[in-house]
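As a next step, we paired sequence with structure tokens, yielding the entry below.
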Amino acid sequence: MNERDTEIVNSDYVERFTITDKGDAVLVSASFGYNRPAATMGRYKGMKEARDALAGLMSALVAKQPDFHMPMSRYYDEEQTVKDARTKRRGGS
């Protein structure tokens, strides 16, 4: 299960799990091969946080656990966006 609990990834079909540094975030992804796009498993603030999440995933795979939920990012978990109809008024009278 990915970080946001919106996607289930079957590890039997995953070629490899990767960590990718994108500058503003570090992504943990599941790569299925050259003909399918990678699935983002989690988005983390730093490399250490991403490595800890990947280590948890690897230990769950080695222990043959039936399911595993990627841990939420300590930094991005606090990020909330307001999606409502209010507009910001700027200047003028």
Summary: The chain has a mean pLDDT of 82. The longest strand covers residues 16-21. The CA atoms of residues 30 and 64 lie 17 Å apart.
